[in-house]
């Protein structure tokens, strides 16, 4: 019989949900089943945790998948024994000869308090076996190895590996949003932040192909794949051509105002996509003051065209912080590749950093019908 390992999944924020906790736990378990399909034998919800049983040969692959499941605070990996002192000590005797001899400590917890021993008794008695019989040095303050013993519902889990998860809420519990996505650093992290809050992102990418290269489109598709690792299923990516609108705006607006107009009509189209997708908000990667279109004045002007809420999860982060998040989440290698930004197409000189709604509408109002027709046609090309 193949050796079995037990993976105990811990969550933090979900545990604070009170009467709604079961809903979030079921959503997390469902996402685990979809994101780690085929890598474990069984899963169960017990006393504020989820326990997975898997063949030892699948342990590493399973742990790697769980690193991408939002809602998981951390996982611990080990073996299982009966919930008696003798059974726990015997399992320690079986396991520890295979472990490198380093300073250790034991921490124990009991979900139920009806045992004939305390958590401190377990720590002392099991620690004595490991120290006296196998010569492991004890270090209560700076251990290199922590044996965590969780006694719950008739079993004791002896856990020696701990891996941090991404935290947050399970993807799907907060509804759907539409994310305006590029292959740069910012918008992918904005999408991940929304996923961490339980949202399912529909990804909308505006492109100016063939005026920009096909490489930019390929980069975005690779980015979609990178983001999908954190989701229970592959994320939808909708590619919307923008060049017709851009070419029309060039004939009607001075260069300094074009980026603001482009972004307004990107929001207009994204909102139509959101209505079709039954999404409740738009999401951008704006960071206040980072570029000309992200000054407060321009954000106000751009946002006026939309009626849905526009969420900007990166608003208070600077570029260095965003790049660090990209390294953390695994999008950095794609974002650092060269790509052509469609917003800078057909723009000469520096864009205006402070626009007003009135001056933009003075240009837009007489051509509103034509802009809406071009935007509707672009959406029909998805």
Protein model, in words:
- The protein is an alpha/beta fold and 382 residues long.
- It folds into 2 domains: 4-164, VC0802-like, CATH 3.30.2130; 176-380, 3-Layer(aba) Sandwich (Rossmann fold).
- The protein is 40% helix and 20% strand.
- The chain has 13 helices and 12 strands.
- The chain has helices at 21-35, 59-66, 85-95, 119-134, 186-196, 214-228, 243-250, 255-277, 296-303, 319-329, 332-335, 357-364, 368-380; strands at residues 4-10, 42-46, 49-55, 74-82, 104-110, 145-152, 155-164, 176-180, 200-207, 237-241, 282-283, 310-311.
- Helix 5 (186-196) links the parallel strand 8 (176-180) and strand 9.
- The radius of gyration is 27 Å and the shape is elongated.
CATH C-level class of the largest domain is: Alpha Beta
Q: What class, by secondary structure content?
A: alpha/beta
Task: Extract low-pLDDT stretches.
Answer: none
End-to-end gap: 52 Å
Which percent range describes the beta-strand content? 15-25%
Question: Which CATH architecture of the largest domain would you pick?
Answer: 3-Layer(aba) Sandwich
Mean pLDDT: 95
Number of domains: 2
Keywords: ATP-binding, Cytoplasm, Nucleotide-binding, RNA-binding, Thiamine biosynthesis, Transferase, tRNA-binding
Pathway: Cofactor biosynthesis; thiamine diphosphate biosynthesis
EC number: 2.8.1.4
Main location: cytoplasm
List keywords for this structure.
382 residues, alpha/beta, VC0802-like, Rossmann fold, 2 domains, seven-stranded mixed β-sheet, five-stranded parallel β-sheet, 13 helices, 20% strand
